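Structure first, sequence second, as always.
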């Protein structure tokens, strides 16, 4: 158990002292970029899914007469 506690302490020390963190303004702009890209990508997938759904529905309506 002491090994786990020591590992966690060393990990936090590593994160605090040796990791170079992205500046806050850059992190915010990258977060916004990811959010916008996610929304655009999800809308594109929704559009393709809608078109595919209509094509499949049309196909089944066509073969069922």
């Amino acid at each position: 158990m002491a090994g786990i506690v020591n590992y966690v302490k060393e990990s936090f020390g590593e994160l605090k002292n040796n990791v170079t963190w992205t500046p806050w303004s850059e992190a915010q702009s990258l977060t916004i970029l990811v959010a916008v890209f996610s929304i655009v990508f999800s809308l594109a997938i929704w559009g393709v899914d809608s078109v595919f759904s209509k094509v499949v529905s049309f196909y089944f309506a066509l073969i069922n007469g």
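Margin note: The chain has two helices and no strands.
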